[in-house]
């Protein structure tokens, strides 16, 4: 299995599901499905999808290390970016900016308005980055990796993580509280099986729940 983060819901009524070389867009308002072909080449497999904040664009991460930006209104690729750092397992929008996480453990911030789109490189994870999410206020980013850690990055200083939280398995499920962007929830794999809640301002874990199963 190559697919990792291949399901995402937009702010409106659309759902994106990635299957092999295709993305299927379900529009609940029209009850119609649109199929987008990510590539005409057989060696490109879809690994991740993420809606933009507005819901007008969809970022698609591929096994070749490329990211495609689709304009949903026209069903066309408007930007293609190649990182050459292994498959793109995770994506996260921050306004008009995009962050990608790769199999190599490298992460990049992209400014889609300029030709040289890579504007920052993160290099804390030693294995694949399988979870990414910006907080709603755009001030913090969390990255979860197959190296069993979740890193919290402060937008004012992206050179080193502000917090590193150790888990017992890969951290794929990550999300911020919409009411309090200091509160972070994570879920880890089969050797951990816990949902954890952190206060990142204090740098501490404040609660956990053993689910008995892999989370994410």
TrEMBL record:
WD repeats by residue range: 39-80, 122-163
Source organism of the structure: Octopus sinensis (East Asian common octopus)
Annotated CDC20/Fizzy WD40 domain residues: 4-215
Gene Ontology cellular-component annotations: anaphase-promoting complex
SMART domains documented for this protein: WD40
UniProt xrefs under InterPro entries: Cdc20/Fizzy, WD40/YVTN_repeat-like_dom_sf, WD40_CDC20-Fz, WD40_repeat_CS, WD40_repeat_dom_sf, WD40_rpt
PANTHER family xref list: CELL DIVISION CYCLE 20 CDC20 FIZZY -RELATED (PTHR19918), FI02843P (PTHR19918:SF8)
Pfam families per record: WD40_CDC20-Fz
One Gene Ontology biological process: anaphase-promoting complex-dependent catabolic process
Protein name per UniProt: Anaphase-promoting complex subunit cdc20-like
Gene Ontology molecular functions: anaphase-promoting complex binding; ubiquitin ligase activator activity
Family in the record: Belongs to the WD repeat CDC20/Fizzy family.
Domain of life the protein comes from: Eukaryota
Keyword terms of this UniProt record: Cell cycle, Cell division, Mitosis, Repeat, WD repeat
């Amino acid at each position: 299995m190559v697919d990792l983060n291949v399901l995402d819901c937009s702010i409106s009524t659309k759902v994106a599901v990635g299957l092999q070389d295709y993305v299927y867009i379900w529009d609940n308002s029209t009850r119609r499905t649109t199929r987008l072909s990510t590539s005409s080449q057989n060696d490109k497999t879809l690994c991740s999808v993420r809606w933009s904040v507005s819901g007008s664009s969809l970022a698609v991460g591929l096994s070749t290390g490329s990211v495609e930006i689709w304009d949903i209104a026209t069903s066309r690729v408007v930007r293609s970016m190649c990182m050459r750092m292994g498959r793109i397992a995770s994506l996260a929008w921050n306004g008009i900016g995009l962050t990608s996480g790769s199999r190599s453990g490298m992460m990049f911030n992209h400014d889609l308005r300029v030709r040289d789109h890579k504007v920052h490189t993160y290099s804390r994870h030693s294995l694949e980055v399988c979870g990414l999410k910006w907080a709603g206020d755009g001030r913090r980013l969390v990255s979860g990796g197959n190296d069993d850690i979740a890193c919290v990055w402060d937008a004012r200083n992206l050179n080193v993580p502000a917090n590193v939280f150790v888990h017992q398995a890969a951290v794929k499920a990550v999300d911020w509280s919409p009411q309090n962007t200091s509160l972070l929830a994570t879920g880890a794999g089969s050797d951990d099986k816990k949902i954890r809640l952190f206060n990142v301002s204090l740098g501490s874990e404040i609660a956990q729940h053993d689910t008995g199963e892999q989370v994410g």
